[in-house]
Design a protein that fits this description.
4-stranded antiparallel beta sheet; alpha+beta; GHMP_kinase_N_dom; 6-stranded mixed beta sheet; kinase; Ribosomal Protein S5, domain 2; 2 domains; 11 helices; Galactokinase; Alpha-Beta Plaits
């Protein structure tokens, strides 16, 4: 269900003093291509979506934040001067953003807020980054001068994850939520922070996520293991990250590294070039090449990086059978969604087939999520 201003305002009025404040929003995101490249100094290619987080906020003249989560029907109060903060994760995001904005010199004061989201849970669309970006933008607007650059606001969200949530994330999710622009995807250089908008208005195509609603329990630290593999290969080659490697350099050290490390590096180097190929194809309106590269990415994530799972590979095979232009895992892997570039004429057939075949095999239907590329963090009213 689409979140509306009325939904948030009604709850804000009910839980606070009957007056209204200002309403802000920030989106979740998709990533067309460029997976597991951020910590290798490469490129990612995200876009903001229409689903996201929305919050009504009103200064209350104290040093206390009074927050109500509409979705979870949960309430908390905390002091801006308390270094520990609330224990519940959904409130710690807000606390962390407050503290990080204060560290930037923004004179944050106490406020009342009610917030909610319509980002599908478990779909890998970064509801947490949307919440962080929403509050960072709002606090800058309410208590600062409203001129803090958006990359700084994105870094506030990233620092919140690192310091207050314990998630050592990259910058892509918060970047996309802050910088999103309707009908545009963005190529972000994760090493330099430079980015470029690419128009995304494909005629005759739709982007659709198919959420497997699966998240496999993982033993050990699979993400850290893969990161360590990449770092070992980079060291063997003599470069800082695999961003600076190429096929010849990888082959030159093949006998010095394990087969597993070789496969991990093979995927990452290939993904670097695939992102650039997709950018070039988009500038030409060549969506067939975009789709081909998406399939290549899935193959690499499945066979070389080994972060897929049976259910996601099954959805990818259904996409091929339905003549979908492009399909791949979106996100870290081991569950979640595939992202699919589908010709409009094939959309209905693909969705119906995916739901029917997946249910027949696994006993439950996947969730279809239509993607519309929207704007980044903003004030609504």
């Amino acid at each position: 269900m689409k979140l509306t201003i009325d939904d948030v305002r009604r709850r804000f009025i009910k839980h606070f003093d009957g007056t209204t404040g200002s309403i802000y929003a920030a989106p979740g995101r998709i990533n067309l291509i460029g997976e597991h490249t951020d910590y290798n100094g490469g490129f990612v290619f995200p876009g903001a979506v229409q689903q996201g987080m929305m919050a009504e906020i009103k200064p209350n003249g104290t040093r206390m934040v009074r927050a109500y989560s509409i979705d979870l029907k949960d309430y908390a109060e905390f002091s801006l001067d308390d270094e520990k903060g609330p224990s519940a994760t959904h409130f710690r995001y807000i606390f962390g953003v407050c503290r990080e904005m204060m560290a930037l010199g923004i004179p944050v004061e106490g406020f009342n807020t009610a917030f909610a989201g319509d980002v599908p849970l478990g779909a890998g669309m970064s509801s947490s980054a949307a919440l962080e970006s929403c509050f960072a933008f709002a606090l800058d607007d309410l208590f600062g001068k409203g001129d803090t650059d958006r990359m700084t606001l994105a870094k506030v969200g990233q620092a919140t994850e690192h310091k207050y949530i314990g998630v050592n994330c990259g910058i892509m999710d918060q970047f996309a939520s802050c910088h999103g622009k309707a009908n545009n995807l963005m190529r972000l250089d994760c090493r330099s922070g430079e980015f470029q908008y690419f128009p995304w208005e494909p005629k005759g195509y739709k982007l659709v996520l198919v959420n497997s609603c699966v998240k496999h329990a993982l033993v050990g630290s699979p993400y850290n293991d893969r990161r360590n593999s990449c770092e070992r290969v980079a060291k063997a080659i003599g470069v800082e990250t695999l961003r600076d490697a190429d096929w010849d350099k990888l082959e030159a050290v093949k006998d010095q590294i394990s087969e597993e490390d070789y496969k991990r590096a093979k995927y990452v180097i290939g993904e670097y070039f695939r992102v650039l190929a997709v950018c070039e194809a988009l500038e030409k309106g060549d969506y067939e090449t975009v789709g081909q590269k998406m399939y290549e990415t899935h193959e690499g994530l499945s066979k070389d990086y080994e972060v897929s799972c049976e259910e996601l590979d099954f959805l990818n095979e259904i996409a091929k059978e339905c003549m979908v232009t492009g399909s791949r895992i979106m996100g870290g892997g081991f569950g979640g969604c595939t992202i699919n570039l589908v010709e409009t004429d094939l959309y209905k057939h693909f969705c119906e087939t995916a739901k029917a075949k997946f249910k027949e095999k696994y006993g439950k239907e996947p969730v279809i999520i239509d993607v519309v590329i929207g704007d980044g963090a903003r004030k609504i009213c």
